[in-house]
Amino acid sequence: MTDFRSRVEGERPYLLRYARLQLRDRHAAEDVVQETLLAALAGEAGFAGRSNLRTWLTGILKHKIIDALRRLAREAPLADDEGDVEAPFDERGHWREPPSGWEDPDTLLEQKEFLAALERCLAGLPQKSAQAFMMREHLGFETGDICKELGITPTHCWVLLYRARMALRECLQESWFAK
Amino acid sequence: MILSCKEATQLVSQGLDRRLGFAERVTLRLHLAICNGCSHFRKQALFLRKAMRRLAESD
Description:
The complex is a heterodimer. Chain A folds into 2 domains: 2-75, Rna Polymerase Sigma Factor, Chain: A (Orthogonal Bundle), CATH 1.10.1740; 105-177, Arc Repressor Mutant, subunit A. In chain A, α2 packs across α3, α3 packs across α5 and α6 crosses α9. Chain A has helices at residues 2-10, 12-23, 26-42, 44-47, 53-75, 112-123, 127-137, 143-150, 154-177. Chain A is mostly helical. Chain B is mostly helical. Chain B is built from 3 helices and no strands. Classes of the chains: A mainly alpha, B mainly alpha.
């Protein structure tokens, strides 16, 4: 019993980091992690027989994050992101500066420094694009569900995801690959 | 139909979120075949997806 408690507690840093990436707010992240740990301790029986504690906890945390996102969307609907997605292109739709290739990026995925740079770029995204992108690529939502949760049309959702990808590649290009 | 790079990158991005129609896939493939910038963009968007997965798993 105490063993289970300390193992659950040991996952707190991982869960906090996960929640912070999603919610972009330290206090909100601490709240959902606290709720998750309490739910996990109360529901130890639900874990019985499963092999991976982290996976199980992350599953609970995802639900808490989704609830929190819903609550946030209700209480304080986000204004649409400022910023011009046209910027990388001229008025005829040509690249101002065509992307060059990234050398052997897969090996970077094992580098902590690179993942930290990615996190910094994520933190710099406009709020709404960030939320859609994190729901899509971090929580693994389908676009239809993101639209529903954020109360937007599919077209709008694609625009947000497009902006996020464009901004992230630019940020990584400047902060990592150009160096 | 000829795509601009702006339109091509929009389709690349949407292709990660919905199934593109036949005509969209054909015009996009034609564009990518002759455009290095957009091909790099496509590889980078796919890489971002992989990186986000890696990030979700990492400590």
